[in-house]
Amino acid sequence: MSKLNVVVWGENVHEHRDERVREIYPEGMHAAIAQGLVEAGRDFDVSTTTLQEPEHGLTEERLAKIDVLIWWGHIAHRDVDDSVVDRVQKRVLEGMGLVILHSAHFSKIFKRLMGTSCSLSWREADEKERLWVCNPGHPIAAGIDRYFELEQEEMYGEPFAVPEPEEQVFISWFQGGEVFRSGNCYRRGNGKIFYFRPGHETYPTYYDENVRRVIANAVEWARPEGIWQDHQGCENRKEPLEPLG
Ligand code: ZN
Fold this sequence. Notes:
It is a single chain. This protein is 24% helix and 29% strand. The chain is an alpha/beta fold. It has one domain: Rossmann fold (3-Layer(aba) Sandwich). A hairpin with a 4-residue loop joins strand 7 (167-174) and strand 8 (179-188). Helix 5 crosses helix 6. The longest helix is centred in the middle third of the chain and has 13 residues, at 82-94. The model has no long low-confidence stretch (mean pLDDT 96). Zinc ion binds at residues 102-103, 154, 200.
């Protein structure tokens, strides 16, 4: 089987505005996420792109070749061009995998695919997050113990305004008492979508071994299993196979 073409899309704004973020991710958050995928040693061909590139680096030609797209965004969701969102949505419906990270719960593409507000409650207080595995048999949880912890993260709490996940892989508990559905699987058309919660920009979360393992597992899980290029046109009208009298 040929290598999976995996692209990490990064908003790449905090890294240029916030010294603390730049110190943790000097090459950008997208680069650290991509590095984790490379170091996972799996059959991935990994590249990155950012909001600042023409067409955000997601031209028709490039998107057509992507097997799994990973998306991190936060303060510039509104700067993502609607025509690119349309294009990504079309590819997901055809069968491309999509992994949505952390604050990308509010990205245009995730809200579009969910059809709900995707709102949640949150707090930045350097608190511990414990991610519990809901189904140890799920491929995205492969190699993860009963739970794993991140010493400092932003809190996301319920209610999380998303459709009921088709499979629940993780639930997070936070030191302050909240819980959150933090590893959620969906299908839209032929495409698989995984939402994974951790990854606030001021913490070194994307260097964490367990987080990296989950993202690599999610890429393998979301790989295309069949592509249907729906032309959505009137030319689909068909003559009957049998005479109708
Ligand atoms: Zn955050």
